[in-house]
């Protein structure tokens, strides 16, 4: 997108230059329009001069016809004068008048010829100026038309390229917009998933904390129970040891005369058994000692359960 923006910014001065050229062409068009108006004015003047020349020619022809008529009249009058000697004296005044009239007519004809010659010269000068100006304006017009056509072709070509570039940039912008929307949607989706994972992670962290607390609590309880068990086992061993000693003492005091050698050996084995079994954490198989030990163990278990409840 930045590359296409740079290209568009680079094309902006070119477009400004083309606009300046178009302004110059518009100025040339205005100049040509003015020249066309001047040509029309020159044409009108030439037509007016032609009309004046036609009028002068008509007046000249009329004067020539009048001169011819007067010459014919003078010839006829001269013939009449030669034929009629009597009327010569009477017609001298008429001849003088006719001569003066012919002289004036000749003068007017010469003046008209001079005016016609001057008008023709002016017409020729204006015609030459008109032709020269026409040729110059036509050359300028052709050159301006050629330049205008070249600039028009170049502008069309550049506009076509610009249109193609704009289509490409528009498609690129549309693709970028679609990609941006997809990226934003994926970002939103990832953010939602992250929130869900963070919430789940928080729950799992709380669960782990609870488990660690319970584990630490259970470890403390297990350590306490192990210590209590050791203490109770030591007490039990001591109690069993004392009980065995008391039973052995009672046995030696009360029943020495009833025991045979074999039974005395069995009793000795029985009395020796509790210490070995107590070292292993078990009790002897003597009925009276078992009853007393079981009640004592129950009492110990009850105390242990009370201690656990207290914990």
UniProtKB/TrEMBL annotation:
Tagged with keyword Coiled coil: yes
Coiled coil, from the record: 32-73, 176-242
Record keywords, A-Z: Coiled coil
Name of the protein described by the UniProt record: Uncharacterized protein
Taxonomic source organism: Octopus bimaculoides
Lineage: Eukaryota, Metazoa, Spiralia, Lophotrochozoa, Mollusca
